[in-house]
Amino acid sequence: MKKISVAHSPDADDIFMYYAIKFGWVTPKDAVFENIADDIETLNQATLKGEYDICAISFALYPFVKDDYALLKTAVSFGEGYGPKLIKKKGTKLKRNFKVALSGEFTTNALLFKIAYPEARITYMNFLDIEQAVIDGTVDAGVLIHESILTFDESLEVEKEMWDVWVELSGGGLPLPLGGMCLRRSLPIHNAINYENTLIKAVDVANKNRRVLAPMLLEKGLIRVDAPTLDTYLDLYANDNSVQLSEVQYQALDKLYELGYKHGYFNSLIKAKDYLIPSEYESLRAQ
């Protein structure tokens, strides 16, 4: 059977949404999924190089790969009143040109940060190293993502919620787009539809069976956090809103791409719905 590479990040929500496939609860038709886990910016860079058939990405990357990858409708993470956090040492005051650590050039939080803080001096590092870099004084501040937003050191404090930056830039009323998945356009369309449907089903099954799946992931040591933190984190990023993109989520993506285009980070203005897999193809072919 055909082997399809599926890359996702090692953070709790991505692992949770994928492992219904890994545990054999959901299987694709006529294919075997081979999963790879790596940090999100490494996956963004890999997608720019076309390394994987299906890959988790930051939504802010997508305009750069739209010609080679279709945007998937599932395994999405949005913030609803929360998201990445700009943190610093307690009691310090940041200068206008403060040095900041971000988790990658193509991450969504980096796009929003650069628009909001044009004078900051940016350095990029693995998201797991950002908290310690702030504690050590290597940087003045850092933007925490994934589980780090819940567990950072008590010597640190939040300077700014990236949710608040999003609200200020977008005008409010929309969830914060963070990450999703994309699929190589060179795959045959009927296969692409099959793979997307498999992933939709996997996320749905995981979500509906969270009380069974979450303890399994913890027991196997696949998650970096404890059970209460995992429960809180899944409430935020792997929930009913992760199964399939909704109308308001499409609107949020379009606003993100509008902001990126307006501020010169994207060279064209795109609409998310124009870059989906045309799932209606199967029903038309059957007529």
Automatic annotation (TrEMBL):
The yes or no answer to whether the keyword Lyase is present is yes
InterPro entries, per database record: Menaquinone_biosynth, MqnD
Which reaction(s) does its UniProt entry say it catalyses?
cyclic dehypoxanthinylfutalosinate = 1,4-dihydroxy-6-naphthoate + dihydroxyacetone
Query: What Pfam families does this protein map onto?
Result: VitK2_biosynth
EC id = 4.1.99.29
Give one GO biological process term.
menaquinone biosynthetic process
Keywords for this entry? Lyase, Menaquinone biosynthesis
Drop me one GO molecular function for this one. Answer: carbon-carbon lyase activity
Pathway recorded for this protein: Quinol/quinone metabolism; menaquinone biosynthesis
Active-site residue numbers: 146
The record's family statement is: Belongs to the MqnA/MqnD family. MqnD subfamily.
Q: What does this protein do?
A: Catalyzes the conversion of cyclic dehypoxanthine futalosine (cyclic DHFL) into 1,4-dihydroxy-6-naphthoate, a step in the biosynthesis of menaquinone (MK, vitamin K2).
Record-given protein name = 1,4-dihydroxy-6-naphtoate synthase
Its gene name is mqnD
